[in-house]
Amino acid sequence: MENKMFCYQCEETAGCTGCTQMGVCGKKPDVAAMQDLLIYVTKGLSAVTTALRVQGGEVSSAINHLISLNLFITITNANFDKEAITARIRATLDAKRELLAQVRNGQMLPEAAHWDGDEATFEAKAAMVGVLSTENEDIRSLRELITYGLKGLSAYSKHANVLLEEDTEVDAFLQRALSATLDDKLSADDLVALTLETGKYGVSGMALLDKANTQAYGNPEITKVSIGVGSRPGILISGHDLRDLEMLLQQTQGTGVDVYTHSEMLPAHYYPAFKKYSNFVGNYGNAWWKQKEEFESFNGPILMTTNCIVPPKDSYKDRLYTTGAAGFPGCKHISGVVGEEKDFSEIIEQAKRCAAPTEIETGEIIGGFAHNQVLALADQVVGAVKSGAIKKFVVMAGCDGRSKSRNYYTDFAKALPKDAVILTAGCAKYKYNKLDLGDIGGIPRVLDAGQCNDSYSLAVIALKLKEVFGLEDINDLPIVYNIAWYEQKAVIVLLALLHLGVKNIHLGPTLPAFLSPNVAKVLVENFGIAGIGTVEDDLKLFFDEADVTDAVTGDMIMGEILRKYPETAPALMECGMHCLGCPSSQMETLADACMVHGLNVNDVLKAVNDKVNR
After folding, report:
1. Adjacent-strand bridge partners of 440
2. Domain coordinates in residue numbering, the chain
3. pTM of this prediction?
4. Domains 14-214 and 223-352 share a fold
5. Fewer Cβ atoms within 10 Å of its own Cβ: the N or the C terminal residue of the chain?
């Protein structure tokens, strides 16, 4: 079957090889084509800006912002609006045309720097410049790995920019690296080096955003967040842009409309500055991929500030608004550039006419464990490690997604030894942040640092622990990495960790399709990158055998097992124990009960522990 498109930038790409007829995300071939062309012309513009810098010229912040937003728009699930993307192509060509005239010896620049055309030529050109236009599999793999990392970096830069923070060195590198992906003279070794340099600037980009967020809104602090609903109408805000949230909260004061966060916006509740808003009431729902059901039951309007958008149902499409990098055809887009006040009055007026959200859950979840908060607890944490109360930290940051294979992360969290603490950031947290995993001496066993970019906090925490324990190598810490990835912001987080020297990262639920066998081999041999296996096998890999203990053991009393783990009753009956209600049988140990029934105790233990872990 002939390819109508080709995209393999996300974890859910079809068959773990590439989407060729339609994106699993819902992206249509014509939109994929315009995204390919937008990337191509943005690389061309970057070649021009890089040449200008080399000759001593200046590049304006407006051009830097144009390039960053172009990349951000092409991140998975961010923008499905062909007209909006086409408009970006035209604006990029206009900017490139003006700057190219200022470059000396411009004829030496790559073809992308010179290409120009009107909208009638866009489709034909897009077909020539997509991912597969690079024929060498390994060069293609490295170019895409770099490009996807730069997409993630662009997102973090854009969020810092709207808070009026800039790092011109990050912008200059991003453009230089984009330009380098056009250079056919660069070898695979050159591109590997550039990949690691991308990780270096990934750290800088996350540090910039951390600075921007904390200067504007204070350092995140331990916070309990309601997951229930109130009686007033509400607006649901999703995505990552805290400045958009701030403007929405300011404009909803005194309107009788509440504001709820969704998915990656949950960590906004941890920032002190947002706690002054009495109508900022809680978090509604779960990770992005459940939005079709949750947006419907929310009843009020939804504001998507960034990814992840799932193509909406007609039942709520007229309530879905986009802004910033986000976009979907048929949904109202709220405009506004860096430094501008956005007008959310239309959303607020619609909310007033809507019913209050339908309750889908109750209770609270806790978070706010970014680096400043955790370092404030350093003595308590270090003491717990030294005493043996905490044996290991497990970094489970990253993304959530639709695939049932991601239930692995829920099962893994449940099965962790009770002396292990999860460090998380990003929407991967929704696989386990509502489980009752308890605490260790008052330290919750799930420490949520925040959004995906707050993986920076996890790196800062690790580096501080390395210093406190007097270690020379970050890999000597009692920390293991079991990271779930989905889109390109996770790619820049991975590259940042590699730059910091972190090794033996496990990445799942599948390894990226854009890694060629040879490129994957380089990552495995030099950094110990690996995939995931079964929960049981990975626990044995990450922990000493002695640390991995079954919840149910043969010497436990049957009555105790049934009280503590009622979910084991069906498994016990399936094994052949049909007298669970008998008072005398509940006084026996499991081993004795197996002997009475002529059952193999090891088979029964496996069955019940599988049920508990599940």
Report:
1. 443
2. 14-214, 223-352, 368-547, 558-613
3. 0.89
4. no
5. N
* Residue among 514, 539, 397 nearest 454 (CA): 397
CB 262 within 8 A of CB 289: no
The pLDDT tens digits of the residues spanning 16-63 come to 999 999 999 999 999 999 999 999 999 999 999 999 999 999 999 999
- pLDDT of amino acid 570: 86
d(CA 534, CA 386): 30
Please give the CATH topology (third level) of the domain spanning 368-547: Rossmann fold (3.40.50)
Residue 546 pLDDT grade (very low, low, confident, very high; cuts 50, 70, 90): low
Cα gap 357→297, rounded to integer Å: 6
Residue 365 φ then ψ, to 5°: -125, 155
List residues forming the annotated binding site for [4Fe-4S] cluster: 7, 10, 19, 25
Distances (CA, A) of 377 to 102, 211, 477: 54, 21, 18
* pLDDT of 584: 72
Distance CA 587, CA 195 (A): 62
DSSP-derived secondary structure letter, 479 = E
Domain 223-352 has CATH 3.40.50.2030: yes
DSSP string, 292-341: HHHHHHH-S-EEE-SS------HHHHTTEEEETT-B-TTSEEE---TTPP
Please give the average per-residue pLDDT across 451-463, as a whole number: 97
- Give the separation between CA 592 and CA 581, rounded to whole angstroms: 16
Annotated binding-site residue numbers: 7, 10, 19, 25, 240, 264, 308, 399, 427, 452, 487, 489
What residues have CB less than 8 Å from 272, skipping those under 6 apart?
A: 217, 218, 219, 221
| Better-predicted residue by pLDDT, 562 or 183 | 183
Question: C-alpha distances in angstroms, 72 versus 157, 266, 310, 323, 412?
Answer: 10, 21, 17, 12, 32
In CATH, what is the architecture of 14-214? Up-down Bundle (1.20)
Helix, strand or coil for residue 463? helix
Q: Which of 492, 423, 494 is nearest to 462 (CA)?
A: 423
Detail the residues annotated as belonging to a binding site for hybrid [4Fe-2O-2S] cluster. 240, 264, 308, 399, 427, 452, 487, 489
8 Å CB contact between 92 and 45: yes
* CA dihedral of 207, 210, 212, 216, whole degrees rounded to 10: -160
Residue 404 neighbours by CB under 8 Å, 6+ apart:
none
Of 473, 21, 395, 450, residue with least CA distance to 206: 450
The region that residue 301 occupies, defined by phi over 0 for left and psi between -120 and 50 for alpha, beta otherwise, is beta
Amino acid at 367: G
